[in-house]
Amino acid sequence: MDKATMYKLTYGLFVLTSGSEGKDSGCIINTAGQVTSDPNRISIAVNKANFTHDLVRESGRFNISVLSQEADFSLFKHFGFQSGRDVDKFAGFPDCARSANGLYYVTRGTNGFISARTEQTIDLDTHTLFIASVKDMKVLSDVPSATYAYYQSSIKPRPEKPKASGKTVWRCSVCGYIYEGEELPADFICPLCKHPASDFEKVTT
Ligand code: FE
What we know:
There is one protein chain. With 205 residues, the protein is mostly beta strands. It has 2 domains: 3-152, Pnp Oxidase, Chain A; 158-204, Rubrerythrin, domain 2. It contains 3 helices and 12 strands, in the order E-E-E-E-H-E-H-E-E-E-E-H-E-E-E. The protein has helices at 51-59, 73-80, 148-155; strands spanning 14-20, 23-29, 33-37, 40-47, 61-67, 96-98, 104-106, 110-124, 127-139, 168-172, 178-180, 200-204. The strands form 3 sheets. The chain has a 7-stranded antiparallel sheet with strand order 2-1-5-8-9-4-3. The relative contact order is 0.17. The model has no long low-confidence stretch (mean pLDDT 93). The site of fe (iii) ion has 8 residues, from loops.
């Protein structure tokens, strides 16, 4: 079985936003998709470690802002590399508005948003799968959507080449963070983007 086949799947990138009891937050996901058209339903799979997961769970409502090719790395850092448990991601964040359901959506680096209400949840161990009916949506721009492949090739900063030293380092394939050391601990979590050791590649300089 060739595990690299999974990379042949295409993924979009989205800011998932939700709110409950006066708290708002958002995170980056790559797992939104339409599952039925009539009635119009979408599904999202969200890691339970995300604060936004809990807000979706509590409120039963969320928005998906579709990231476009105009999204810059700072937007990914803002929503993807810090936790809503530690910071209020909307405090002083200018590029957002509230949709009819009262939740934020992101207005910069996005080309549309969808508001949905949860109909069913399925427990998937690390993640929850939410199946939701679409309640509102709007096109925000004609800029093409950013796929995960586009993020890797054109949005993520080019990794700095480690100085030639014959040393082995490990580079996070998601954000470019460099871990210095011969062996990467199996339970290592990237301090920047919180992705696990399996997302690191070995680089010998
Ligand atoms: Fe990372």
